[in-house]
Amino acid sequence: TTQTATPPPTATTPPPSGPAPKLRVSGNKILTADGKAYRLLGVSRSSGEFACVQGKGLWDSGPVDQASVDAMKTWNIRAVRIPLNEECWLGINGSPRGATYQQGVKDYVDLLVANGINVILDLHWNWGAYTNSPDWHCKDEHATCQKPMPDARYAPQFWTGVANTFKGNDAVVFDLFNEPYPDMPAEWNKTLGWQCLRDGGTCTGLPYEAAGMQDLVDAVRATGATNLLMVSGLEWTNDMREWLTYKPNDPLNNIAASWHAYSFNACANESCWDSQIAPLAQQVPVVIGEFGQDDCGFDYMQRLVTWADAHDMGYLAWTWNPWGCTGGAVLIKDWAGTPEPGVGAGYKAHLLTQSPYV
To answer: Which of 82, 87, 151, 293 would be a feasible disulfide site paired with 93, CB 3.0-4.6 Å?
Structure first.
């Protein structure tokens, strides 16, 4: 007997049939090449940041083939954020490393873009020993965990390489650093934190020399790459209050703000979003590069996406990995895209009602 599945809710636009649009900033909107306002709507796909330094290959045994991309398309996913490892890309540490790692990333990016899905590449794990950190924080100088800031030693080199690889492909977005928190080593002095974030150098409480956002913008633009850039804020990029004041200079003025918004962050309700994020979104595009909640439900996430939709804001949920949702934001049960109850089912249903076109 033939089993018929219940058809999903109709998306407001059909899945893309051609390659992903080239993107650029104009005012407070992200536009396609033909001038249509566009939102980055999708998921993060974790593993490129950790697997290569944990003996798990490049993609942690997960598929990066057409079938796995087709699974994403059943959710109406239009953007995928891929966290990367600085040392694996540069060939300093890990396996695969260097050219093999780079080619693996490029192949996956090319496949996604060909399928109409924009890609955000982010520098997630980097070199630099935060030796004076709290006991819960890792002390390893290698790129085996999150660090408060990108490092001056390798991060500009990393972005030079990534930019050279993907320049000319403006469907790819560069998220310059995942979640800065230089305000923590500075004992939560926000002014010192913002100065460190933009300018790098010797930062209060941070033992290694930092690369600032300006250094990374400069590294990308020096290659001739015109790709859209995402620039973070403080406190794991949940604090965006002084973002405009400390926005790095980009000769192309092609920068969006990267905001992360989890249920356990400080800015996690509508009154905070209205007072801190909405004014920023009047000036520049804001992309919610990561969001989720820590109990596998969807109630907080529903509130956030409803608010973001009303503000024409894009968002990418954490995470498209079948790790079993026991307390984190895990969306899928398998690589075929079977949603986890609550978090996954709720997000899939929501994406199927959304168009990336504003």
So the answer is: 87
What integer pLDDT is reported at residue 328 of this predicted model?
81
* Residues paired with 336 in a beta bridge: none
Query: For 134-181, how does the pLDDT look when each residue is reduced to its tens digit (9 = 90+)?
Result: 999 999 999 999 999 999 999 999 999 999 999 999 999 999 999 999
Residue 17: the pLDDT is 79
Tell me what the mean pLDDT of segment 46-73 comes to.
98
Biggest alpha carbon–alpha carbon distance for the chain: 69
d(C-alpha 129, C-alpha 223), whole Å: 29
Rounded to whole angstroms, how far apart are CA atoms 273 and 280? 10
Exposed, middle or buried: residue 53 (CB in 10 Å: 0-12, 13-18, 19+)? buried
* CA neighbor of 152 nearest in space, from 185, 196, 190, 92: 196
Extended strands (E) in the chain: 23-26, 29-32, 41-44, 79-85, 118-125, 172-175, 229-232, 255-262, 286-292, 314-317
265 DSSP assignment = S
**Exposure b/e, 11-34, CB count within 10 A at least 16 = b:** eeeebbeebbbbbbbeebbbbbee
Segment 275-298 shows an average pLDDT of: 97
d(CA 113, CA 65): 13
Give the phi and the psi of residue 161 in degrees, each rounded to 5. -70, -45
CATH code of 32-351, in short, is: 3.20.20.80
Residue 6 has pLDDT above 50, yes or no: no
- CA–CA distance, 295 with 337 (Å, rounded to integer): 20
The set of residues, in sequence order, having a beta carbon less than 8 Å from that of 136 and lying 6+ positions away, is: none
Provide the residue ranges of all domains of the chain, joining segments of one domain with +.
32-351
**Secondary structure percentages of the chain, helix, strand, coil, to 5:** 25, 20, 55
What the block records as the tokens of 260 is 């992360």
pTM across the whole model:
0.96
